[in-house]
Amino acid sequence: MTITTCENGDSQGDSRYLYVLLDFDGLGSFERSEQEDMLLSVLNAAVSNFTLFNKKDFHLDKDTESAFSWFQNGINLLKQDKNLFKGLFYIAIKDVDTSQSSVCW
């Protein structure tokens, strides 16, 4: 299977399945309010089969704690709906410097 992605969110893939990729790059950005960040992260988790939280390092900074706080606040608004939040949640932590990644292989 080959998927081609574009910056505007379009994607092409296997014709048997519909893949919708939601990329909320920049959560915690000055361009959005805390409420907008909360709603985007909750929307993603509520309707997705798979949610990936990508983290560049292992420590939990203020921005990461804020993101999880927004997420929890939003879930409390929707948690009564049994059809939502059925997907998997993964955290990807990149803790190896890319210049040294070939050493591991």
Give structural notes.
There is one protein chain. By secondary structure, this protein is of the alpha+beta class. It has two helices and four strands, in the order ββαβαβ. The strands form two sheets. The protein has a two-stranded antiparallel ribbon with strand order 1-2. The chain has a two-stranded parallel ribbon with strand order 3-4. A hairpin with a 5-residue loop joins strand 1 and strand 2. Helix 1 packs across helix 2 (62-78). The radius of gyration is 16 Å and the shape is globular. The mean pLDDT is 71.
Which structural traits does this protein have?
alpha+beta; globular; 105 residues; 30% helix; single chain; two-stranded antiparallel ribbon
Gist of the model:
By secondary structure, this protein is an alpha+beta fold.
What about the largest sheet? Answer: 2 strands, antiparallel
What best-fitting shape do the alpha-carbon axes yield? globular
Total beta strands: 4
Number of domains: 1
Beta-strand residue fraction: 15-25%
Query: Number of DSSP helices?
Result: 2
InterPro entries: P-loop_NTPase (IPR027417)
